[in-house]
């Protein structure tokens, strides 16, 4: 009987941990700027933030606009530590000719100050689109500041030249709760223990 009560308590604790582990990420201080940011917007979900960039196009369709930039800044906070994020760079149409997208992103830990992630990617007309990558941080954090820069260029050549980014998606992965793992271990140990 005692073993049964302990097992029920352990399962209840595990369920409580699971709900904490699924705590949403709160996005704030969202700022989109740069020469190609007109009409840009952001939409958030429980674990992701998406940026729509209707004016992020350079090259032949917008001649003489051949270069431009979009800057993105925001904070992300969660009750559970965030361990990594995934970037999906959605491109409307395709890169063509001399078209090039340079994407760089820095993640600063706001709890224990310091850079915990820094990436830079260059995409050309030979790149597979949409581009997706998982960025693992040096250490998890419950509160971060993300800074991203998207540089587009499509210099004039004899070919059709285009660089366009319509969507940037960022999905965050909260770390599993250490308490949930301990509870799972306790339940497993109770199951192995012989009954009295």
Please characterize this protein's 3D structure.
With about 200 residues, the chain is of the alpha+beta class. It has a single domain, classed as Jelly Rolls, CATH 2.60.120. The protein contains two helices and ten strands. A hairpin with a 3-residue loop joins strand 2 (about 40-45) and strand 3 (about 50). The radius of gyration is 22 Å and the shape is elongated. The N and C termini lie close together (about 10 Å). The model is unreliable at about 10-20 and about 180-185 (pLDDT under 50).
What secondary-structure arrangement, pairings included, does this model have?
Layout: H1 2-21, E1 26-33, E2 41-44, E3 48-52, E4 57-59, E5 67-90, E6 100-109, E7 114-124, E8 131-153, E9 162-164, E10 167-174, H2 178-192
Antiparallel strand pairs: 1-5, 2-3, 3-10, 4-9, 5-8, 5-10, 6-7, 6-8
Order of helices and strands: HEEEEEEEEEEH
Mean pLDDT: 83
- Number of separate domains: 1
Major sheet description: 8 strands, antiparallel
The total of helices stands at 2
Classify the fold: give the CATH topology.
Jelly Rolls
Q: What structural class do helix, strand and pairing data support?
A: alpha+beta
Q: N-to-C terminal Cα separation, in Å?
A: 9 Å
Radius of gyration: 22 Å
| Relative helix content | 10-25%
Q: Indicate the proportion of strand residues.
A: over 45%
Which residue ranges are poorly predicted, with pLDDT under 50 across at least 5 consecutive positions? 9-21, 178-184
Globally, the shape reads elongated
Per DSSP E runs of 2 or more residues, the count of β-strands stands at: 10
* CATH class descriptor: Mainly Beta
Reported CATH architecture: Sandwich
């Amino acid at each position: 009987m005692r073993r049964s009560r302990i097992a029920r308590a352990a399962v209840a604790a595990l369920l409580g941990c699971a709900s904490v582990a699924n705590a949403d990420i709160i996005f704030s201080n969202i700022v989109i700027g740069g020469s190609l940011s007109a009409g840009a917007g952001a939409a958030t979900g429980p674990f992701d933030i998406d940026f729509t960039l209707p004016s992020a196009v350079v090259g032949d369709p917008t001649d003489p606009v051949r270069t431009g930039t979009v800057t993105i800044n925001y904070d992300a906070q969660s009750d559970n530590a965030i361990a990594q994020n995934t970037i999906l760079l959605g491109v409307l149409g395709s890169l063509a000719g001399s078209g090039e997208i340079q994407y760089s992103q820095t993640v600063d830990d706001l709890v224990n100050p310091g850079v915990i992630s820094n990436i830079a990617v260059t995409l050309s007309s030979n790149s597979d689109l949409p581009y997706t990558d998982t960025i693992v941080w040096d250490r998890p954090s419950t509160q971060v500041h993300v800074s991203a820069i998207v540089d587009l260029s499509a210099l004039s050549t004899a070919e059709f030249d285009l660089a366009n980014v319509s969507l940037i998606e960022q999905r965050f992965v909260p770390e599993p709760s250490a308490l949930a793992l301990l509870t799972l271990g306790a339940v497993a140990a109770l199951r192995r223990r012989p009954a009295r």
